[in-house]
Design brief:
By secondary structure, the chain is α/β, with parallel strands linked by helices. The chain contains 6 helices and 8 strands, in the order H-E-E-H-E-H-H-E-E-H-E-E-E-H.
Amino acid sequence: MKKLSFLASLAVLFALASCSPSTKIIGSWSSPEKPASPYKKILVTGMTSNLVNRQAFEEELVATLIEDGVPATSSLNIIPVGSAATTEGMAKALETIRNSGHDGILTVALLDQTSETRYVQGTTTYAPMGYGGYYGRYSGYYGYYGAMTYDPGYYTTDKLYYIEVNLYDAKTEGLVWSSQSETTNPSNLESFSHTFAGVVVDQMIKDGIIAGPAKK
């Protein structure tokens, strides 16, 4: 019975792992006109009217950038909410960004949210009971056919979120880098934004947009 319990536990573990939240970059692009040197100070701004979501993603990206050695600031700290909605307000916001030493502006926007239903195949687990007891006699074995267990398949619905991150040059306002990510089944806003920030910043380092942590 111990072996059966162990195998059953493994099956449950793998089933849970397959449903765990995940974030991956599905595409990134760098402008051929991007500066030769990496950006050194980034302003992060969320493109949403939901202040709770905006704050969560801005703060996580800022924290991750700083952890990797790149100074960063949440737009909520230096630009009043709604102040950049007009042409005059945007000009003032850009002046504030440049005067505070930021050379890059990182925007985060939700492109799409979808649901997909998929079928999870059932599994059969074989666990022989060993000699002695029920297994040692045909009649006992035949009556104790529980050694072969079957978990039926089932349908599950995955929630998918597609987010676009753009980096603009603070001086020219030109787009220099863009990425799109896919997140599956986020459990909550905190873990979603934290995982998302790590994946995005890693891609920025990989693409040479920021320098990242100094190598020892």
